[in-house]
Structures are given as structure tokens and as C-alpha cells.
Amino acid sequence: MERVPVLKIGDILLVSIQVDMSDQTAVQLQEDLAERIVATGCHGVIIDITALAIVDSFVGRMLSTIASISRVLDAETVVVGMRPAVAITLVELGLSLEGIRTALNVERGMELIAATRDDDHGYDDADEPGDQSTDTR
Amino acid sequence: MTAGVDRGHPQAQAIRSDEDVVRVRQLVRTVAVAVRLSLVDQTKLVTAASELARNTLVYGGGGTAEVSTVDNGLRRGVRIVFADDGPGIADLDLALTDGYTTGGGLGLGLSGARRLVDEFDIDTGPERGTRITVTKWSR
Predict the structure, then answer these.
(1) CB contact at 8 A, A10 and A83
(2) Domain for residue A42, yes or no?
(3) Do residues B102 and B42 lie in contact, with contact meaning Cβ atoms separated by under 8 Å?
(4) Is the pLDDT of residue B67 over 80?
(5) Which residue of A19, A54, A69, B37 lies most exposed, with the fewest beta carbons within 10 A?
(6) Per the CB < 8 Å rule, is A54 touching B18?
(7) Looking at residue B104, what is its pLDDT?
(8) What count of other Cβ atoms lies within 10 Å of the Cβ of residue A88?
(9) Which pLDDT tens digit goes with each residue over A30-59?
(10) What is the interface pTM, i.e. ipTM, of the complex?
(11) Domain covering B10-137: architecture
(12) A54: Cβ contacts below 8 Å, ≥ 6 apart
């Protein structure tokens, strides 16, 4: 089975998917990323899918799952480099990629993560007393 | 079989593992490029093939994908037949509903694949497995 490499650049983990992944490879990547987030303490994950010719429902679900796992582990995930034909196909397929943030390229993805972290430090809405959405009764 | 359609020599790919699903995608892409489908149509067809090949593996217990070129005199296209000897689909209407799944997936495989192709035909029943035929035509 092929394995997708995870690179650490500063405070960010960069995953550039360069192979046509089997489902098993995709699941392995999910696990590898979770471990690397904890091991490195990184607060951002960028998944570059520039080289992916298609994103089907399995890979789409993997991207959503990675975003959710990262969030639980205090890291932001941004998916970058989606090809136009892939975007058109995803929408027609019915995949909404819920919870996934996207950016056009790696550079913008890094800016997005940096901006999100800055926002979090200045204003954390989970601690806002008047915020009804945090009422968990 | 649609009348008046010439079929090119089909290429078959067994579907017995994850890796075979990848091979189906690659075979379909090669044929789609050869009949000059547009990039968006190639992407849609390969994505549909990926969903259906995975269904053949997961629900049908494995099977085959047969890829051929078709020509109706006006346009060329790619036809793929996914066949398995699995249990068959008990409730086809339900299986074609967005979000319905028995396999823990998103329930978009069958319904989504149908939206991505021009022709979609399904023959299924208990004890006779499932045979899904899809066609994508060049514009």
C-alpha cells in the first residue's frame, strides 16, 4: 500500500496528495495525520489536492473526517488546489464537503490558518456569555 | 443494448480489491481521453466509475468492470458495465435515494453516479446479482 507523506513546515502540517489513492491509503492518511498533529503540536493542516484528478464520495468523506479530527485536536484544516472540473463534479455528485475550509493555493491556505489563529486569540466566542449557541442544555 | 450503437472491443478489469478500484479509474480515464470527452466529462465519468466500482466491491462482493467505446453515428462515448454475483439490491428506489446507505458510507454512490452520466441502466434482483450500465457521450 502506498503512503501519503506528511511534511512539517513551521507550525503547519502539509500533505500533498500525489497519488491516485486506494481507499486504504486514504484511511491510513487520516490516522497518520491525527498522530502527527498530536506529536508535533501543530495548529494547522493544509491538504493540497492539486494533483487529484477526481474526488469521489470516499475521498470527500475522508477530507471531512480529517477536518473534524483536526478540530478536536486543536488544529485548523484547509484544503487547497481543487481543480475546477473536480469542483463541478463534487457539486453534481451531491458532496458538500461539510466543515471543510478551502483556499485556492498553499500560500492562501497558510494565510487563512494564520488569520484564524489570530482571531481565536483576540476573540473566542465560546467564552462569550451572551452567546446563545453555547447553551448546551 | 441500445439499437444502432457500435461497440468497440471492450476492456475488462476485475474488481477484487481496493487497488482494483484504482485500476478501474485509470482504465476509464484512458478510454475517456481516447474518445475525446471534455475534461469535465472525463472527471464526471471517472468519478462515477469510482463510486460504482467501490459498490461492486463492497456490496457485490467483487465483480468486473467492462469498458468499451460506443458510436451512435453522431457522437462517440464510453460505456461501462459493472457486474457482480452478489445478493442484488433489494429495494432499488431506496438505494437510488440520496443519503440512503446500508454500508456506512454517505449514500451518494449510486444516486450521485447516476447524475454524473448520460445513460444509467440497472438490472438487479435477489439471486442474480447486479449489473449496472452507464454511458457518457462526447458533446
Answers:
(1) no
(2) yes
(3) no
(4) yes
(5) A19
(6) no
(7) 59
(8) 14
(9) 999 999 999 999 999 999 999 999 999 999
(10) 0.86
(11) 2-Layer Sandwich (3.30)
(12) A86, A89, B25, B43, B46, B47, B50
> Which candidate from B44, B54, B115 shows the least CB-CB separation from A58?
B54
Question: Per-domain residue ranges for chain B?
Answer: 10-137
Q: Please give the Cα distance from B36 to B6 (Å, whole number).
A: 17
pLDDT in tens, A70-98: 999 999 999 999 999 999 999 999 888 88
Q: Give the nearest partner residue to B46 out of A21, A53, A84, using CB atoms.
A: A53
**Cβ B105–A61 below 8 Å, yes or no?**
yes
Determine the pLDDT at residue B99: 75
Nearest by CB to B116, from A23, A84, A92: name it.
A92
CB < 8 Å to B112, chain A: 57, 92-95
**Residue A115 belongs to what domain range?**
6-121
Does residue A1 fall inside a structural domain?
Answer: no
Task: Provide the pLDDT for residue A135.
Answer: 52
**Domain for residue A73, yes or no?**
yes
Among A56, A63, A65, A92, which would you mutate to test the B interface (most chain B Cβ atoms within 10 Å of its Cβ)? A56
Sorting pLDDT into bands at 50, 70 and 90, what band is B4?
Answer: low
Q: A76 in helix, strand or coil?
A: strand
pLDDT of B21 > 80? The answer is yes
- pLDDT tens profile A15-37: 999 999 999 999 999 999 999 99
DSSP B8: P
Sign of the CA dihedral running A99, A103, A107, A112 = negative
CATH number, domain containing residue A28: 3.30.750.24
Q: How many domains does chain A have?
A: 1
